[in-house]
Amino acid sequence: FLITISSESNEEADALLKWKASLKNHNRSLLSSCINDATNVSSKTSPCNDAGRVINISLPNRGVNGTLHDFSFSSFPHLAYLDLTWNGFFGTIPPQISNLSNLRYIYLGSNQFFGNIPAEVGLLSHLEVLHIQLNRLDGSWRMCTCTP
């Protein structure tokens, strides 16, 4: 799969490399640098914003197996789009997912996640889409409409 990283952010690059090493079936992987294309920056499919920070991780239907436990959620404060659908991801969804404070779209459907939906999902105040169907998840979640 293709993971696009920015040479501007060593923390993001290191976090992606660590997570990639924990995954199975990643022998076709390729790392490349972000290309700042002003016409794609606003698109949810553009991997990086105009500052070269990762805003999109999209790996649908790539035959990837693994968990989210080695994914460093706090390393991606600008991530807005996460698509891991139709793979072999398993395990629980870590509560640290709430560290992705700018996340708007989560696509985790058609995997093998199990356990409770972490209550911390409700803290994602920018969340517009949560796609978690076709997993073995229990429970419910509530969006926090907290005001300062």
From TrEMBL:
- Major localisation: membrane
Q: Name one GO cellular component term.
A: membrane
Indicate what this protein is called per its UniProt record. Leucine-rich repeat-containing N-terminal plant-type domain-containing protein
Q: Where in the cell is it found?
A: Membrane
Q: Which residues form the signal peptide?
A: none
| Key words of the record | Leucine-rich repeat, Membrane, Repeat, Signal
SUPFAM superfamilies per UniProt: L domain-like
